[in-house]
Amino acid sequence: MKYTTLGRTGLKVSRLCLGTMTFGWSTDRETAFAIMDKAFDAGLNFFDTADIYSRWIEGNQGGESETIIGEWLKTKSRREVIIATKVRGRMWAGENGEGLSRHHIMHAVEDSLRRLQTDYIDLYQTHWTDDNTTHEETLEALDRLVRDGKVLYLGCSNYPAWQLMKALWTSDKHGLARFDCIQPHHSIFHRQEFESELEAACLDQNVAVIPYSPLAAGFATGKHRRDTREVDSTRTSSGLVTRLVADDRAYVVLDSLEKLAQAHRCPMAHVALAWQLARPSITAPIIGVRTLAQLDELLGAVDLTLSESEIGQLNAVSEGF
């Protein structure tokens, strides 16, 4: 495994981050433990979750993923594992059951700490923006958590460039802990949302980038073909897959991924991840897996280095996504 620092901080994280959205949903506890054990043994020290995972299952209020991680964490040395989780989504009934108000954050963090069975969260992220709460209120609450030692680093997710810059300005103006990491949606099949403005802002401000869905919900693995355009994904992001399977341009990108994979004698997913890891802005793509076999297929991606001409080829065929 290879490692890098999280943005401007001194925190060392693996170049791949394990996403755990499926834990407690399409991945049961036993399988989740096996996946985390294998990832950890392979040198992956960075694990991402959120309090709302897996809220979308009927009858669940969320917290299942955090609970599973908390049970697993007891089997490891806490200082060797970097745990990232998120706050924002609805976790209880009532007007304050969701959002980024001081009230919601202070209650939600205690719930996450309890489920994770830990005294602190390494990276605490706002899951998406809250138009009803000012940046000042949110960042003052998060700053208090950092000062109290309940949170070590702060991050955000799904923020456009102007919202990230406004948040960084607010932290600078008021002397508050700032966002040192952002989690955007980015892959070779979903480029413009991140690359148009946000990427430049992250590079300028030295903000770490841990993109989610780097394999486009599995589309980049090659499991969808021109002659079999059926959506086969249990991911909530399967809406992206639905669009891609109907887009002829997507198969041109797949062809390029496949040719390079054959040349390097590696899975197509390695090529898609290596393309992403070659961008100076990218810290650690978040890989989501449901099975040990899927994890096995992805772990070696950090060892693949693409040439400038290969990266240029992939850039050209994926332009416009």
For the structure shown, list the relevant keywords.
TIM Barrel; 321 residues; globular; 8-stranded parallel β-sheet; alpha/beta; two-stranded antiparallel sheet; single chain; 12 helices
Strand-helix topology:
Blueprint: E1 3-5, E2 12-14, E3 17-19, H1 29-41, E4 46-48, H2 64-73, E5 82-87, H3 102-116, E6 121-126, H4 135-147, E7 151-157, H5 161-174, E8 179-183, H6 192-195, H7 198-205, E9 208-209, H8 238-245, H9 248-264, H10 268-277, E10 286-288, H11 292-298, H12 308-318
Parallel strand pairs: 3-4, 3-10, 4-5, 5-6, 6-7, 7-8, 8-9
Antiparallel strand pairs: 1-2
Helix pairs in contact: 2-3, 5-7, 9-10, 9-12
Describe the structure.
This protein has 321 residues and is of the alpha/beta class. The chain has a domain of 181 residues: Alpha-Beta Barrel (TIM Barrel), CATH 3.20.20.100. The protein is globular and about 50 Å long. The mean pLDDT is 94. It starts with a strand and ends with a helix.
CATH class of the domain at 3-183 reads Alpha Beta
| Alpha-beta classification | alpha/beta
Q: Which blocks of ≥5 consecutive residues have pLDDT under 50? A: none
Strand order of the largest sheet: 9-8-7-6-5-4-3-10
The separation of the N and C termini measures 30 Å
Binned, the helix content reads 40-55%
Rounded average pLDDT: 94
Order of helices and strands: EEEHEHEHEHEHEHHEHHHEHH
Number of strands: 10
- Based on the coordinates given, report the CATH architecture of the domain at 3-183: Alpha-Beta Barrel
Can you tell me the CATH topology of the domain at 3-183? TIM Barrel
Largest sheet: 8 strands, parallel
> How many alpha or pi helices?
12
Radius of gyration: 19 Å
Strand proportion, as a percent range, falls in 5-15%
Question: What is the CATH superfamily classification of the domain at 3-183?
Answer: NADP-dependent oxidoreductase domain
Shape designation = globular
